[in-house]
Amino acid sequence: MDRFATLQAFIRVADARGFAPAARGLGLSPSAVTRLVAALEERLGSRLLQRTTRAVTLTDEGERYLPLARRILADLEEADASLQAAQAEPSGRLVVAAPLAFGRAHVGPLLSAFLSRHPAVQGELRLGDRIVNLVEDGIDLAIRIGDLGDSSLRARRVGATRRVLVAAPSYLATLGTPQKPDEIAGHRCIHFAGFNPTPEWLFEHEGRRQRVAFAPRFVTNAAETAVQHAIDGGGLTQVLAYQAAAAIRDGRLRVLMPDYERPPSPIQIVYPTARLLPARVRAFIDMAATETRWSFLDLD
Fold first, then answer.
1. Class of domain 3-88
2. Scanning 102, 167, 189, 218, which has its CA 20 to 30 A from the CA of 135?
């Protein structure tokens, strides 16, 4: 039997000095209240109430136990109120994981703005391109680019990005502009190994996929380095559009063969469950969904 229900019944009977008025206040039958009080007395091994045909009074044990029972229920109500307040107003520690380059450029500024808006939240941003286990690593949510492999995670889409092949205008002016994947073999290639350790690029055209292997002139596991080497005229490289968006928009890089690009990859916020999310997690997800522009499809 619910111990808190037995305490509540005992306090109501003591205050009302009767089972019938206590039952009316609790919305229960007098027999149900009688059973609750009897269960409490049996568990304690002491009689708390003296019942007569005229009134119900406290025994000596009941007199000593009543203030303790009131304190227990008050503490419970305070704990409930505290948790409900925490759910209403974001507070506590928020741990966010994100890919290295995307996290620096986009998630970091968003988290800074979020913390300014919610001063009771303490934020932590973990950057890295390794897929982390949210539960085991104590992470509230993560930004992931691409389709999810773990179907147990909940996700909310907040943008999309292309995978683009780029080169500097100066390089293209010297060595020409490839029009089809088959023409890549005649060019210098910069391999960003963050996609795949194997030096090959995947293209898609009219529903047909094509893998193009190449001998890289330069290899790096950092997208920023691959992009900068391409800007410097080092050759062709394939990266996610957000990694080269600034250079593309200001003309330092050109997008090649857009008709051969694979379908865009979603940018998603993932989290372990949709039930009973802390206010800080839900507020961050809502802010990202409504106030960010994480679409890297139109690069003009």
1. mainly alpha
2. 102
Q: Quick check: helix, strand or coil at residue 217?
A: coil
The pair of three-digit structure tokens given for residue 4, joined into one six-digit string: 């808190």
Output DSSP code: residue 198: S
| Amino acid in the structure at residue 290 | T
Pairing of strands 189-192, 236-240: parallel
Q: What is the mean pLDDT of residues 229-240?
A: 96
Q: Which CATH class is domain 163-260?
A: alpha beta
User: How crowded is residue 99: how many other Cβ atoms within 10 Å of its Cβ?
Assistant: 25
Measured distance CA(153)–CA(239) in Å, rounded? 26
Overall pTM surpassing 0.85 (yes/no): no
Reduce the secondary structure of 101-116 to three states and give it as a string. Answer: HHHHHHHHHHHHHHHH
Distances (CA, A) of 168 to 23, 199, 252, 253, 273: 82, 20, 6, 4, 44
Closest to 177 measured CA to CA, from 263, 262, 249, 253? 253
Portions of the chain given CATH number 3.40.190.10: 92-153+274-296, 163-260
User: Token digits for 253?
Assistant: 């890089």
Fold of 92-153+274-296: D-Maltodextrin-Binding Protein; domain 2 (3.40.190)
pLDDT digits (tens, 9 = 90+) for 121-179: 999 999 988 888 888 888 999 999 988 765 678 899 999 999 999 999 999 999 999 99
